Amino acid sequence: MSWFSRGIVLVCLLLLSWQLYQHGGYFLRHERWGWSLFGILFFASLLYAVICTLLGMGWIALLRGLGDRTLASQLYVIYTKSHIAKFLPGNIFHYAGRFALGRLAGVAHAHTTLASMGELASLGLMAILLMLFTLPRPLVLQHDAFTWAAGLFLGLLLLTTLLILSWCRQGWVVRFFENRLGMQFTVPCGYPILLGGLGAAMGHLLFFIAVGALTLWLANQLGGAAELWPQVLGIYALSWLLGTATPGSPGGVGVREVVLVAALSQMMGEPQALMLALMLRVVTTVGDFGFWAGGLLVERVNTAVPVNTMRSHRDM
């Protein structure tokens, strides 16, 4: 499987390289090439770094629903530090980083496991939900009733999963993970998990909408059509989903770009779509490092706060 996924990434990178070779003249002649382009990329990267805060808040919401009492600022630092590890080969080291850093901060492995699984499920469901409401579908599925029925089904599926987890403290769900992972789970009864999961899902949906809007803004800088905004939102969600589902693609490199170029070429032309995909890769990469730097700043502020003050806030 690892060789297969690496092969997919290699093919995607070769396709992108060939397209760059074909349209190299367009990039050299483009009127935006220069300091104005660097200004656009820098501003968009800052926005993306801020938008990534929604991902950290979603993860914190899941941990809060599981009963974790670690300071939110500490959890945020853990998320930002581990987030940058997604660029390592394998596309899984950001999850391993959360385990290691979380353990040092006193976060139970069981909580980290459930929160990571919940995050993946929530991001996937929100991406699919956004795609249902924005992307064109085959003729048999174009009726509005299908869209609302599918959206309602996904929403009910999320609610049902959260309710099962919140009601089954000693049930088969918890016992399954305890037996498989060898961890002792302490899942609170009632609705904390439900509220945490809904909060995370809302944050993840806002993340996709915000990054989709940022992608649309970049497209408009290249002469894209503003009336295509619903499709752009769905296309970004699709590219993110496929990039994340490819294990050998660190940060979705190659896969997301190919999806964006293939889907946007008919809307704005292949050279513009290729340039947009490359601009978005620069923005997300620099923005991820900005998100990481913001976490370091929060950590520095935390170290300046007296320990007694931090403990008093934790007990509140």
TrEMBL record:
Keywords from the named record: Membrane, Transmembrane, Transmembrane helix
Annotated organism of origin: Magnetococcus marinus (strain ATCC BAA-1437 / JCM 17883 / MC-1)
Taxonomic superkingdom: Bacteria
Chain segments annotated as transmembrane: 38-63, 120-139, 145-168, 189-219, 273-298
Membrane recorded as keyword: yes
Protein name: Uncharacterized protein
Keyword Transmembrane among record annotations: yes
